[in-house]
Amino acid sequence: MTNPPGRAEKLSRSAGSVVFDADVLVLGGGPAGTWAAISAAERGARVVLADKGFCGTSGATAAAGTGVWYVDPAPERREAAMASREKLGGHLQDLRWMARVLDRTYAQSNQLADWGYPYPSDDDGKPQRNSLQGPEYMRLMRKRTKQAGVTILDHSPALELLVDGNGVVAGAAGLRRQKGDRWVVNAKAVVIATGGCAFLSKTLGSNVLTGDGYLLAAEAGAEFTSMEFSNAYAISPAFGSVTKTLFYSWSSFTDEEGSVIPGASSKGGRSIIARALRKGPVYARLDEADAETQRHMRVSQPNFFLPFDRTSLDPFTQRFPITLRLEGTVRGTGGLRIVDDSCATRVQTQLSQYATRAAR
């Protein structure tokens, strides 16, 4: 029987292991991993995706959701968006990459709509595409990944990259936890999309984000960049694990006595909150959100409100205690150093070797 077009070929199943031959191996089944797998498969590559959990439900995005940098392509709006982010980042950003990210985000968000993602609309009927509900988003991404012909290995953490005698990465190997055996994938290219490391801080969806991909890449000789900007702490209810810091832009912050904490805010004032927490409890109340904003909050990120609804606490009118939870490198502000527009690292793969030879 021939292998279906676009499917990775299962070469053998020896005692205790299963071996696949693929063009591309993707490690990690979150947004980056599924988008990479779909993109490669749509271009005719045979793709295997391995996830240490269940692709579509594991990871920070699937459990929570995410804001999206969705900006209308009008030049003045793009320039304003980049200027705002550049100021927040201390003017250290690469403007060319910011423009590329805006272009890709706009196109992919519209692609999600074409695939059937249920974006909400405002009162004028205009779709609101600046936020994604994690469960809906990643359920759709798993569906599209399978439809693209990608072979998905669930509950299959990678343990090592396969490197030949010349230092060229030629695949990876790991465990299939539910099968009780090992997997090996021989691949011309390996995409590491395993997310960052939250150091088991109990932020929602982050317990699987333990830096595995960083370690594998470092062992193969990859370099890192901007890690000094990746020690992020996010605001969370003291009784919960959801770290949707954006909503605290509409919050006031007070101490135990009810006095406003000067300078405390979700942007630019988080260090003040941290210092206040060393002295005693800090409370938040989302009292600066009007009725329309409150409605939009609940529609865009309903899981944020679950801990409040379960305790019959109204975060818009009642104070609630908050804490700061370490997100580490999960936000993606640092990580593997890429060397070109294809997001390659300095580590050679079989595919990059072919490209180098062809260019000579």
TrEMBL record:
<dbReference type="InterPro" id="IPR036188">
    <property type="entry name" value="FAD/NAD-bd_sf"/>
</dbReference>
<protein>
    <submittedName>
        <fullName>FAD-binding protein</fullName>
    </submittedName>
</protein>
<keyword id="KW-0285">Flavoprotein</keyword>
<feature type="domain" description="FAD-dependent oxidoreductase 2 FAD-binding">
    <location>
        <begin position="23"/>
        <end position="229"/>
    </location>
</feature>
<dbReference type="GO" id="GO:0016491">
    <property type="term" value="F:oxidoreductase activity"/>
</dbReference>
<dbReference type="Pfam" id="PF00890">
    <property type="entry name" value="FAD_binding_2"/>
</dbReference>
<dbReference type="InterPro" id="IPR030664">
    <property type="entry name" value="SdhA/FrdA/AprA"/>
</dbReference>
<keyword id="KW-0560">Oxidoreductase</keyword>
<dbReference type="InterPro" id="IPR003953">
    <property type="entry name" value="FAD-dep_OxRdtase_2_FAD-bd"/>
</dbReference>
